[in-house]
Specification:
Four copies of one chain form a homotetramer.
Chain A (H helix, E strand, L loop, with lengths): L6 E4 L16 H18 L3 H8 L2 E2 L2 E8 L9 E10 L3 E10 L2 E11 L1 E2 L4 E2 L4 H7 L9
Antiparallel strand pairs in A: 1-4, 2-7, 3-6, 4-5, 5-6, 7-8
Chain lengths: 143, 143, 143, 143
């Protein structure tokens, strides 16, 4: 059985915080996206979306995101983002991202992207090498 | 009948775009949040969340956001964000934000915040003046 | 004599501010850049750097920026950014940007870009149409 | 002799890049600031400016920044930011930050902050514990 765990650490800084002294809500989707980008980087062996788009001509634009916020994010601890692909459709892929600090869950998010031929910006089925790479990691129970 | 329409215009710039030549997904929640902040500003007569938090000691941290992306956002047109409150609970408020460019819908999002006593970061019921201000604008049909 | 004045208004929001209740220093260069992008937009008749790069194959990467900060930027007033080109060399262009709120100067910055053939990322002389467009607006006294 | 070297690693991502396929200029000052924040974190034993401001009531607003850009920053390599304090005046502190990727210098920047009593936003002399902490690390040759 493949170990599907992947976690990405983010250093939350002063500039991420708003006058309420917590990370600004607008930063939180970016943190989750960075974690998904890092997931791709680790599994592709190239720099994430940058590699997919520029070296492989594969785009993965987002069609949906949803996040629940349970505890504030602050600079007092590193933000640990766990990432799992939860579903691989013919033309789409979904991810779950859970962000936590000091053992407490801060947010849970779900994200769906479609595959495109990057330089034409038209939809395509998930390319085979991507499918092979992703499938062993899918966790449908987290979707 | 109160006119509930409110729209906020955003200038999308080069720096908002990623190498796919469209606004980066991570920027889109921030655009929607900026539109909600502008909604508060217009209806409060003070600078949005900054005014609520610092002048009125009312916080409105987000507990949920959800967005669907239908068309890419680019610098070729201004981004028009329409904002409506869709529900005012005892302790929470929800908004719908629709972003469009050149007449095409780019994204539709829903957002829920809770009310807090800002300097204590504890939950509170929606303060009366806020309730009075929001109620005439609520559009439950858009929730 | 050409009127060289150009100003770009920016709505500073809650999310631009840090826990010191003022716009985060890291946002201020971005505000100035947005103003330069808007300067190009107004004078080119297309969406700034996006238009230059994608429609005209002209890149203008920055080689230098310098800013002095005199007063904090907050959401209480709109930020007015005045922009002037101050020098047009064979292969470079410099701008001055002055940001103010409520009549008080917040920052003064100087910025230098070089011209490139965008899709080759190699240096070029300022293209003639750009030279003609810029020259009437140059204010060497502000460099 | 104290070893004054400090370096902070930044993961540059897709979302940091613009359509020219390099990190957007507006992101580069933020990278340098994050590195200075990390310098404080390492030397203070608390989360940087967040700790200084909220736990020690010491603010360090920026009065100046200047950066030269020598090579583009991309997601293909980690960005290594070296940070040194270069001068400690009575009421101000200056830093040098050098950012490099894959052994090539991308930018060199200088930054000056003043000390304030954070909750009063008034200037103060560098507090003694800060002075003691900073002095062994100063590299005047890099100013």
């Amino acid at each position: 059985m493949t170990d599907t765990s992947f976690s990405h650490e983010i250093r939350v800084s002063w500039g991420d915080c708003d006058p309420a002294k917590i990370a600004y809500t607008g930063r939180l989707p970016s943190f989750a996206l960075e974690a998904i980008d890092a997931w791709w980087e680790t599994h592709l062996g190239g720099p994430g979306w940058y590699h997919l788009e520029l070296d492989r001509n594969i785009g993965t634009p987002f069609v949906h995101l949803s996040m629940n916020f349970q505890n504030p994010v602050t600079p007092r601890h590193r933000l640990i983002c766990e990432v799992w692909p939860t579903r691989l459709g013919d033309k789409s892929i979904s991810f779950c991202v859970v962000g936590s600090q000091d053992g407490k869950t801060c947010f849970i998010g779900s994200f769906t992207c479609v595959f495109t031929i990057a330089d034409q910006f038209v939809s395509q089925s998930a390319p085979d090498p991507i499918r092979k790479l992703v499938e062993p990691h899918i966790r449908p129970d987290l979707s």
